[in-house]
Amino acid sequence: MIRLFINGGAASTGGGLTYLRNVIPHLARRADAQTTVLLNSSLRSEFGELPNVSFLEDAKSSGAARRFLREQLALSGLIRRSAAQVLVSAGNFALWRSPVPQILLSRNSLYTSADFRRDVHARGDYAIWADTLLKGWLARQSIRRADITVAPSAAFARELSVWSGGKIVALHHGFDADAFSSDPAPLPQAAQAQIERGEDALRLLFVSHYNYYRNFETLFRAMPILSSRLKGKVKLFLTCRLSSGENPGTYRAESAASLAGDLRGSGEIVELGTVPYRSLHHLYRACHIYVTPAYAESFAHPLIEAMSSGLPVVASDLPVHREICGEAGLYFPRFSPETLAERVLRIRESPELAQRHSHNGLRRARDFSWSEHVERLVALAGQLLRSENGRN
């Protein structure tokens, strides 16, 4: 029996939230582990009462810097009181003086991305630029202080290793196709109505909040090319709204909204807003091609969700994207709207190619398993504990 403490207090949106939602139920099924999870109080009701898992709630909502300082002061006491033997820090930053051996989960590709630094600097968004540099320094120091650092893909592990000088272990995040598609809850009525209006169009999908690093602008520049070739019979569905303040973080969406321009008014770019995760599988299956022009990524859960739903993928040519999708994707230079449009048209004009990529994606999605991820995570914790005990 091993006793784990997972610090998930920083998870409230995106990949961190996806991680907790999937890992915690698998830990609850393990008789060889007792787990204490620190999480944001707003998430507590999602998990109910689970065997082998106890919860501590972090009721305070604050910025990353304040949360980091609070954790450095208070977390050690919580770990000791839980009698945990291994700490899993799930939010990119380590506890600098952990009372027990520590596994750090590092998954934020912005700290290592030269493209992101150039982008925010060119936009004059100096607050984000400075914030990223500071957090990047903390993340690099965290890698040096953790006993083991885990990255969610081999490509990102290599990137982290070059950036930090540390040894990084690659451990793919998982996917559970049955759990993802099991909820019968339909799409919100407004979203369903928008889908139905595009019945005769090529329906593209991009699942993301608006931010800079997902590179919406390259996708928007590709849309007039596609619209011209397909005589307006194309729709791009977004799971966000192009409005500052309606997305996590402080990213300014006005320039992207202006670039989308008339295509928003004509309904060729459709802002669905946030779609509940439980009904997201309906949205994937209502579309024809999944597209992502992201220039920074460490794993990308939506790619696996898309592949498991049978969608061919058109993705920016990042090592992470090639690792995750393999032969299920067509790839384009990350800042080339012309090549992006050409890849979409290749799939649109070749049913055989679309079918082959759909089949490859369904097969590839089965390679990802949350059960296997948790199995390897617990094994790493056991290995770390045995090594620690051997030194004492």
Walkthrough of the structure:
The strands form two sheets. A seven-stranded parallel β-sheet has the order 3-2-1-4-5-6-7. Strands 10-9-8-11-12-13 form a six-stranded parallel β-sheet, with helices on both faces. Helix 8 runs parallel beside helix 9 and helix 11 packs across helix 14. The chain has helices spanning 14-28, 64-82, 114-122, 126-145, 154-164, 177-181, 189-197, 216-229, 254-265, 280-285, 301-308, 319-325, 337-349, 351-365, 370-391; strands at residues 2-8, 33-40, 53-58, 86-89, 102-105, 148-151, 168-170, 202-206, 234-238, 269-271, 289-292, 313-316, 329-332. The chain is α/β, with parallel strands linked by helices and 392 residues long. The model has no long low-confidence stretch (mean pLDDT 92). The protein has 15 helices and 13 strands. The longest helix has 22 residues, at 370-391. It has two domains: 2-174 and 369-386, Rossmann fold (3-Layer(aba) Sandwich), CATH 3.40.50.2000; 179-365, Rossmann fold (3-Layer(aba) Sandwich).
